[in-house]
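User: I'm putting together a small comparison set for a docking exercise, and I want a reference complex before I start. The sequence is below, and the ligand is PXG. Could you produce the 3D structure with the ligand included, as structure tokens?
Assistant: Of course. I'll restate your input first, then give the structure tokens for the complex.
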Amino acid sequence: MTNQLNTQELQDLDRDHFLHPFTNYKELNRKGSRIITRASGPYLWDSEDNCYLDGMAGLWCVNIGYGRTELAAAAQKQMSELPYYNTFFQTAHPPAIELASLLSELTPAGLNHVFFTNSGSEANDTVIRTARQYWNLLGQPEKQIFISRKNAYHGSTMAGASLGGMSAMHAQGGLPIPGIEHIDQPDWYKEGGDEDPAEFGIRIARQLEEKILEHGESRIAAFIAEPIQGAGGVIIPPATYWPEIKRICNHYQILLVVDEVICGFGRTGKWFGSDLYDISPDLMPIAKGLSSGYLPIGGVMIADHVARVLTEEGDEFAHGFTYSGHPVCSAVACANLRILRDENIVSNVDSVTGPYLQERWASLADHPLVGEARGVGFLGALELVADKSARKPFGSPGAVGAICRDSCYENGLIMRAVGDTMIISPPLILTKEHIDELVETAHRSLDQTLAKLTGMR
Ligand code: PXG
């Protein structure tokens, strides 16, 4: 069908029938959607045959890059053998078992059990169900409250959006649901003022302790956080932050949930953000890079001591999805994880291409628009500001970011704008030549953004 319809026809049908996620409908209806038709390696093509270097790996997920036929072959084989069967009621099938076992090997020590979902949002719903069931089984049913952070992203379902700290999402949905509390995020650049970053990191982490004491340890189920906030704008906490969070979580009887939906599967150069910061999660939601986005699959890694309570103290856990551990998605995820591991993609990001990207990315800090260029592994952010030395933002938040994002598109690079923070999260298979292309195109786009701003003044 797509091959027979031209861009205009596709845009008309799209406008008439397709309600897109996270999309400004008025803007979309005015401009028409961009229609992506094919992809290879780190490149995408649209229906007008324009080519883009995908600086976002789809939506933070296509870690192995596009066009890996091994995944298509794994899907075809599994579809022919067993396209579907459920994993409820004491049933299993080889692909889900194999994936569970492979995940136990690759994830941090002590995480040897997985509950499968179809997405990161469902994984975070599962986190709430699991943590509450855990405390229930331990005879502490009043431990219900989750502490999360402002500007966190944990998904779009009622539970995911509630755990998340996006005020715009809360405003539209009558959220958060009861039992969710938010503390400040460790965003030194925007919120640290004159405070030393190390002190800021500790002070913000201690808000967790204050929140626990405010409600009483006996009512707190868990703290949830992304190792590095992704959708919030690639916010890298000061080095003091995670050690202090760990100290607090060890001191009080609460579960630590580390949301690895973005940081997992090599994004930071380590297999997991938890490896980077030496964190031992009790629960660890995963999705995205688990299948490199080729098929939808997610899950929650569950620490041995939590799994023991669920399986030995409890009878039936009344939770699950029709497609939990879907055989085709599981087979594709296994093929993806083997590629990431056997082709040394993660270790290459850690020791070769990640450091090269960070070195080149840091050079963008010299640009007059860029107040800070930061990153880890294959994550990067640029803060576009009105005054670099004062860390002063632009008057109308998001306007300059949007200009820069559009310039990037015109120049063949997909880079996201979160307000006036430009972010990248490219496929982990970028070569040094791709990285040069990315940084040079970003630089050119920043120049054009500055020229447009100067023209407007
Ligand atoms: N946790 C984290 C940390 C995420 O980044 C989810 C959970 C939810 O996953 P699902 O599979 O339900 O989407 C995410 C998703 C953005 C953007 O604007 C980020 C996500 C999703 C959509 C948009 O950067 N992250």
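The longest helix spans residues 432-456. The mean pLDDT is 97.
User: Thanks, that's exactly what I needed.
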